[in-house]
Amino acid sequence: MLGRIAAAWGLVGVCLFLASAIFKLAIISWQLVAIELELYHWLVMLLWVLFMGYYEGYQGFQKGFSPRVAARIYFLVENVTYKRLLLAPLFCMGFFDAERRRIIFIICLSIGIILLVQVVEHMPMPWRGIMDVGVVVGLSWGLISMLVFTLKAFFSPDFNYSAEVPNRQLRAVAGK
Q: Which residues of the chain have pLDDT under 50?
């Protein structure tokens, strides 16, 4: 029972994290509607959206983050601890109970994102809005792909992604 609660909290927490960023950035992006954009603005926006869709959405989320998060959500059902229950969204994102290299990568990536956010916040319109449109596309792709992978983790026998939990922390899990 606690494992299902932890899995649900992990899924909801990660979804809320991504959805809140999408919502906040989408509000800023909508300010572009009131600005008369030049052709070069539209061209930059198109290229940025394609870039972010591919590199953040497809490469970053769909090929890496989303299947791993889904596997960790599924892992929680049979491998819950009180720490994992309480901090399920952070566990699912890989901030703890992961291989050392994964934790270091997640922390460095998070710091890098925070620094980039600080830089973009100081950009003038329309450039900030253009940057935010691309990020909204990438994050939206990520949220959707994470939900799809989570459904696959629970309902598809073909889901073969690792939760990347160190072997010493594994308990016997009933086979799918």
A: 170-176
Residues 6+ away with beta carbon under 8 Å from 161: 67, 68, 70, 71, 149, 153
Total structural domains within the chain: 1
Place of tokens 């070069």: 40
Burial (CB count <10 Å: 0-12, 13-18, 19+), residue 159: middle
Between CA 126 and CA 36, with CA 142 as vertex, the angle to 5 degrees is 15
What pTM was computed for the model? Answer: 0.89
Treating both helix axes as pointing N-terminal to C-terminal, what angle do 127-155 and 39-52 enclose, rounded to 10 degrees?
A: 20
Output the pLDDT for position 168.
55
Task: Compute the mean pLDDT over every residue in the chain, rounded to the nearest whole number.
Answer: 93
Query: 171 lies in a domain?
Result: no
Return the pLDDT at 173: 42
Give the range of the structural domain holding residue 41, as residue numbers without chain letter: 2-164
Residue 174 falls inside a structural domain = no
Residue 103 in domain:
yes
Helix (H) / strand (E) containing 41: helix 39-52
At 175 the pLDDT is: 42
- Is residue 169 assigned to a domain? no
Cβ-based neighbour number of residue 18 at 10 Å: 20
Beta strands in 69-173 (DSSP E): none
- Cα–Cα dist 6/3, whole Å: 5
